[in-house]
């Protein structure tokens, strides 16, 4: 195919949008849609290569795969190798082991599934994953593996006209499936091939159903397509369900540019030519540079260095890796090891070794090894079971006691962390845990990710079960309040009034009400951050209390707090003005604010008077 500047320009626009989005979301809140444009281009080119080969009866699956290997693997392998070497010296083992795992997953082209299993793409922890961006390469590679085989099979049993119709129908069905999954699980829809396939298939339809466009219409069509693509970068945000209906905008825009096939000044200039040519390598290198800014806390102006550095490394990677062979470097004698696939296998196996040795942990002292192992155990150490009872449509965790007397324990995750402690007791009472993580009992509090009905409909449970005591939390009082001061103060007043109503309802139904304030929290308690940053093993009590000034102020404004026992965990968990985060053997918390089960059993004994008397 003759080199098409419009396709190259689409690559340039796509990579530029993704790079800008990653360095500063506020500049291009929907810049992530550039990946969707890449998918359309891939689908168009792959369909063209395969179908033309089938029409000429000279298509070779092995040659096709070999071409994809030469195109994608060398630059990706070098990136992974460079990061593994860099990490050996500059990344602590607690993070280095994950880098090893992600390098192996990236070079095995399953990183999209790995990252999907770990977290949401827009989760803040994403900024700690050096190879997160390789998810899109894995999706494309999976498409490359399956798509030619499907086309070859259908080519044997169908005519070209029928083949086109099958792909058209498949694209429509895949799109509808993607919309459905996006509603049910946006994270799965974002990362996985079945919900992304329609975007590549749509690019294929552009080739399979060519349109005769008058020359006078080519430029307006191209301009319209570019406007649609660029508009998507500003209209959508990371909170937009993706890739549902919304992703049609950049997809249709990219298709319009491909259909127009116009070599205008908009797409044929030195800037788009160079950026498009370097786009793959720029994409590869920019994200680790973004992560470095967060990881090493290089400040809000890191983009001034990061964006030019991404372009420079992309240009160098294109010139010396993408465009070269081993013979160009007189390394053909080492081709057994340095050819794309063998080298990728070696780097991937190195990543596996790093992961299974906990970041090559044995190179550190015994005390450091114990600390890292404790942190690894801590981050997934959580013991809160699935609901085992339903009362009035509410999901409850029930612990059977030795009598017919009942206690209700209700709140968010800071109530859930009490479960191991309560379960360890020889309970006289039947204990009902009514909880919803990330929620608060006041109806005006809305969690943007899930509803809080299970907690906020607590009155249904009070109508069904007679409780002697209720234990609840005030920790989440200020969760998801607006940042702007005037709006924040207004919503706080509303929550205070609602919490007063909540307390009044409890006092009408039970004889004793206990409100637990906040526990000590902070980076020092987070095992990962504590090791990464070399943080101390305690914080001053005054610092722990400073995190709850907003809570204390709200508590003073409550009218129905009278005859409610307010419990101050900091008073019990801190000694001599210090709140410890760990002992010689283990961290107390699993993250910056949640207790591990064993520590919950040990530390919450100050609540014995509630549950044992």
Describe this structure in words.
By secondary structure, this protein is α/β, with parallel strands linked by helices. It has two domains: 5-356, no CATH class; 389-612, SGNH hydrolase (Rossmann fold, 3-Layer(aba) Sandwich), CATH 3.40.50.1110. The protein is 59% helix and 7% strand. The chain contains 27 helices and nine strands. The chain has helices at residues 5-23, 34-55, 61-90, 93-107, 111-118, 135-157, 160-184, 186-191, 193-208, 215-235, 248-260, 270-295, 303-322, 335-338, 340-356, 366-378, 413-416, 419-424, 453-456, 459-464, 485-509, 527-533, 541-546, 549-557, 569-573, 597-603, 608-612, and strands at 389-391, 394-399, 406-411, 430-435, 469-473, 512-516, 538-540, 565-567, 578-580. The strands form two sheets. Strands 1-2-4-3-5-6-8 form a seven-stranded mixed beta sheet. A two-stranded antiparallel sheet has the order 7-9. α3 runs antiparallel to α4 (93-107), α3 runs antiparallel to α6 and α9 (193-208) runs parallel beside α11 (248-260). It is globular. 42% of the residues are buried. The mean pLDDT is 92.
Q: Radius of gyration in whole Å, from Cα?
A: 29 Å
Structural class: alpha/beta
The proportion of residues forming helix, as a percent range, comes to 55-70%
- Describe the global form: globular
Major sheet size, sense and barrel closure: 7 strands, mixed
Report strand %. 5-15%
Unreliable runs: none
Mean pLDDT: 92
Straight-line N-to-C gap: 82 Å
Strand order of the largest sheet: 1-2-4-3-5-6-8
This entry's quaternary arrangement is single chain
- The number of domains is 2
The number of distinct helices, counting runs of at least 4 residues, comes to 27
């Amino acid at each position: 195919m003759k080199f098409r500047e419009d396709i190259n320009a689409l690559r340039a626009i796509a990579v530029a949008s993704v790079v800008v989005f990653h360095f500063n979301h506020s500049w291009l809140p929907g810049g992530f849609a550039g990946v969707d444009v890449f998918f359309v281009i891939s689908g168009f080119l792959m369909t063209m290569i395969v179908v033309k080969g089938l029409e000429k009866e000279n298509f070779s699956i092995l040659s096709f795969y070999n071409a994809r290997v030469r195109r994608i693997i060398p630059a990706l392998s070098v990136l992974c190798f460079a990061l593994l070497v860099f990490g050996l010296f500059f990344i602590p083992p607690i993070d280095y082991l994950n880098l090893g795992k992600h390098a192996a997953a990236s070079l095995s082209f399953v990183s999209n599934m790995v990252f999907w299993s770990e977290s949401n793409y827009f989760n803040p922890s994403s900024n700690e994953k050096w190879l997160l961006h390789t998810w899109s390469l894995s999706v494309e590679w999976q498409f490359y593996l399956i798509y030619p085989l499907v086309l070859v099979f259908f080519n044997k049993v169908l005519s070209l006209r029928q083949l086109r119709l099958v792909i058209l129908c498949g694209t429509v069905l895949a799109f509808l499936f993607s919309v459905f999954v996006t509603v049910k699980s946006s994270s799965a829809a974002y990362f996985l091939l079945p919900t992304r396939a329609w975007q590549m298939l749509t690019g294929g339809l552009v080739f399979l159903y060519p349109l005769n466009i008058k020359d006078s219409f080519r430029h307006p069509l191209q301009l319209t397509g570019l406007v649609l693509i660029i508009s998507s970068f500003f209209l959508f945000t990371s909170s937009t369900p993706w890739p549902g209906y919304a992703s049609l905008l950049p997809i249709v825009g990219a298709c319009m540019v491909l259909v127009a096939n116009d070599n205008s000044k908009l797409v044929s200039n030195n800037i788009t030519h160079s950026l498009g040519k370097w786009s793959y390598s720029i994409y590869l290198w920019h994200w680790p540079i973004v992560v470095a800014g967060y990881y090493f806390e290089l400040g809000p102006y890191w983009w001034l260095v990061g964006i030019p550095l991404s372009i420079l490394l992309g240009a160098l990677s294109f010139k010396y890796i993408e465009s070269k062979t081993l013979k160009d470097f007189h390394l053909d004698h080492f081709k057994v090891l340095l050819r794309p696939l063998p080298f990728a296998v070696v780097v991937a196996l190195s990543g596996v070794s790093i992961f299974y040795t906990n970041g090559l942990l044995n190179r550190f002292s015994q005390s450091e090894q114990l600390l890292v192992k404790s942190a690894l155990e801590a981050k997934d150490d959580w013991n809160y079971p699935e609901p085992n009872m339903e009362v009035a449509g509410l999901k409850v965790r029930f612990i059977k006691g030795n009598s017919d007397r009942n206690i209700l324990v209700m709140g968010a995750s800071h109530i859930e962390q009490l479960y191991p402690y309560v379960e360890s007791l020889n309970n006289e009472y039947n204990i009902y845990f009514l909880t919803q993580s990330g929620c608060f009992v006041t109806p005006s509090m809305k969690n943007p990710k899930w509803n809080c009905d299970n907690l906020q409909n607590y009155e249904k449970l009070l109508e069904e079960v007679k409780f002697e005591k209720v234990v609840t939390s005030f920790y989440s009082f200020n969760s998801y309040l607006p940042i702007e001061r005037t709006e924040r103060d207004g919503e706080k007043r509303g929550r205070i009034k609602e919490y007063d109503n909540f307390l009044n309802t409890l006092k009408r139904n039970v004889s004793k009400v206990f409100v637990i304030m906040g526990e000590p929290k902070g980076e020092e308690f987070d095992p990962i951050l504590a090791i990464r940053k070399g943080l101390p093993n305690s914080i001053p009590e005054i610092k722990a209390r400073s995190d709850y000034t907003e809570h204390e102020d709200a508590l003073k404004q409550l009218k129905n707090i009278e005859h409610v026992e307010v419990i101050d965990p900091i008073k019990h968990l801190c000694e001599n003005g210090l709140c410890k985060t760990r002992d010689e053997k283990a961290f107390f918390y699993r993250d910056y604010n949640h207790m591990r089960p064993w520590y919950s059993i040990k530390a919450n004994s100050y609540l014995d008077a509630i549950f044992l008397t």
